[in-house]
Amino acid sequence: MSNDTTRIAFVCVQNAGRSQMASAFAEHECEARELTDSVEIVTGGTQPAESVHDVVIEAMQEKGIDLSERTPREITHEDLQDCDYVITMGCSAEGVCPASWSGENRDWDLDDPHGKDVEAVREIRNEIETRVTTLFDELSTDQRTGA
Question: 59 and which of 33, 40, 119, 121 could share a cystine (Cβ 3.0–4.6 Å)?
Fold first, then answer.
């Protein structure tokens, strides 16, 4: 990884819903915008679940994205140390962001899809997709202006 790589972490408690959707949309944006060499996506949870929520898998399949093979993982201080952005999903990131970390933390304050019906999860999914697209628009502008 080179120094000009932008690292973005999507973090939530279980890493089984919101952060999985966000990282999948971010990966799609990287490919669509030809940023796979300059953006690295990291995702994890502070207390990861056993698997991605079934309703999340179903909602993402409607967008042509398969999350069925993904496994929630724990996020560590080391994972976040070199991140430029740590985006939390509406759950506390306390104890996650190390004191020496100099990146930007954003909280998207999204409803947890766990236990919700597919219609509610679709709304959360669509909000995440919009926010990820907006984030990448911002990153593309920053890269063009040298910010």
Answer: 121
Beta bridge partners of 85: 8, 104
Task: Say if residues 25 and 8 touch (Cβ distance below 8 Å).
Answer: no
Angle between helices 18-32 and 118-145 (to 10 degrees): 40
Phi, psi of 117 (to 5 degrees): -80, 170
The β-bridge partners of 106 are 87
First to last CA, the chain: 20
- pTM, rounded to two decimals: 0.90
10-residue mean pLDDT series, the chain (147 residues): 80 94 98 94 94 98 97 91 90 56 84 95 98 94 66
Domain at 6-139: CATH code: 3.40.50.2300
Spell out the domain ranges in the chain: 6-139
